[in-house]
Design brief:
By secondary structure, this protein is α/β, with parallel strands linked by helices. It contains 14 helices and 18 strands. The longest helix is centred in the first third of the chain and has 21 residues.
Length: 404
């Protein structure tokens, strides 16, 4: 197998006929079976190659949630690659914005320099959208994995993988630049944009020099860190906020956008015309919980306007209204009870209603949902949703159920 301490040699061995046979053999091995399978396979194959195959099988199983089972079963991964890769649905949406002219702010580009490409997840989505990609990373193993992924997915003609420091790459021949700085270090997630690798300031300057550009950043980026000429977009998938993107060179500079996947619904507002904060009002018949991307984009006021509502508290992103309005940008609940925060009263109410299926949501409360669920001990055939929040500054419990 070569030098077992050399990750490149180990990966190369996986791509030999023997390595491919082992990958097929361990494809569906469960964790509880690994020891027995490894013991059996090591009688006929090098122990380190068996270990590498089992490790790759585990990574492929983990990656199925991001890449889909069919692609993940063929692709190659590193532990960091699985952790940091963009979910395929998000990468596909972003690639469509790059490739489709005029659609949802699409840029209509035909070539992209993908800087900090990792194992190639974004490059794959871009290539599948018909875009020629230069994929750059400075880590030799990561580049080898990205190159292998392009090959096994039949995209090698569209993806050139280059091992280099991204700060040394000439991006001028390309229609657009995409930068996904590393936001994890030896101690975990990095929150300071200037501690990204490369720093956000370098990525912004690179974007400004390109005809078109997109920078993937953490969704918690402070709004005052967003350059004036960029469109800031927050993207959620299945209700979970996945990332923010700064778009340069489009037709909506200075605007905020919230995009919800898988539906593709998008809510946008130029900064100059963003609505003022909604009024605070008493809790009405319905409570609307805006999608996380809407909240991150500071577009709760737009949701309130759509449902004819206001806030339950000036610091809480829950919208209340007496009108039942269908909107993709918020989940609606019909409120049946409003109580001051009191666990005993809530427990009595739930027992009276026969509630055994209890969903607990919180915003502006220090109480953990599991802690409350243990204390009230829900029992019975009924179901309810409890919101732990503040109303007019006071700790409050709102009880209701989803609309529809």
């Amino acid at each position: 197998m070569g030098d077992v301490n050399d990750p490149l040699a180990s990966f190369a061995a996986l791509r030999t006929a023997e390595g491919q046979g082992l990958l097929d053999a361990v494809r569906d091995v469960e964790p509880s079976q690994e020891l027995a399978v490894a013991t059996r396979l090591r009688r006929e194959h090098p122990a380190d190659l068996v270990s590498a195959a089992l490790a790759q099988a585990r990574l492929r199983q983990r990656a199925a949630a991001k890449f889909g089972a069919a692609d993940a079963a063929r692709m190659y991964f590193t532990p960091n690659g699985v952790e940091q890769s963009t979910r395929a649905s998000v990468a596909t949406y972003r690639a469509r914005r790059f490739s489709d002219p005029g659609e949802l702010g699409g840029l209509g580009v035909r070539s992209v320099a993908d800087l900090c490409c990792g194992i190639g997840g974004d490059a794959i989505a871009l290539a599948r959208a018909g875009i020629a990609v230069l994929a750059v990373d400075r880590d030799p193993l990561t580049c080898a994995v990205a190159r292998a992924n392009a090959e096994v997915l039949g995209l090698a003609d569209l993806i050139e993988v280059r091992e280099a420091d991204v700060t040394d790459v000439d991006t001028s021949p390309y229609d657009a630049v995409f930068v996904d700085p590393a936001r994890r270090g030896g101690r975990g997630r990095i929150f300071d944009p200037e501690a990204y690798s490369p720093p956000l300031s370098w990525a912004v300057e690179t974007a400004r020099k390109a005809p078109r550009a997109a920078l993937k950043i953490a969704p918690g980026i402070p709004h005052d860190a967003v350059p004036d000429e960029a469109e800031a977009e927050w993207i959620s998938d299945g209700g979970d906020v996945k990332e923010a993107v700064l778009w340069f060179g489009g037709d909506a500079p200075g605007s905020h956008r919230a995009t919800l996947l898988p539906s593709g619904d998008t809510l946008a507002s130029p900064l100059a015309t963003m609505l003022p904060d909604p009024d605070v009002r008493a809790v009405g018949r319905f409570l609307y919980e805006p999608d996380g991307a809407v909240i991150r984009a500071h577009l709760v006021a737009e949701v309130a306007a759509r449902v004819g509502g206001g806030l339950i508290d000036e610091t809480i992103a829950y919208v209340t209204s007496d009108a039942a309005v269908v909107t993709p940008y918020a989940s609606a609940y019909e409120i049946t009870d409003q109580l001051p925060f009191n666990v005993k009263k809530l427990k009595a109410l739930l027992r009276e209603r026969g509630v055994g299926i209890l969903t607990v949501k919180k915003r502006g409360s220090a109480v953990e949902p599991e802690e409350l669920r243990r204390k009230v001990k829900p029992q019975g055939p009924g179901s309810a949703t409890v919101f732990l929040t503040r109303v007019g500054g006071a700790p409050t419990m709102l009880v209701g159920h989803p609309v529809g």
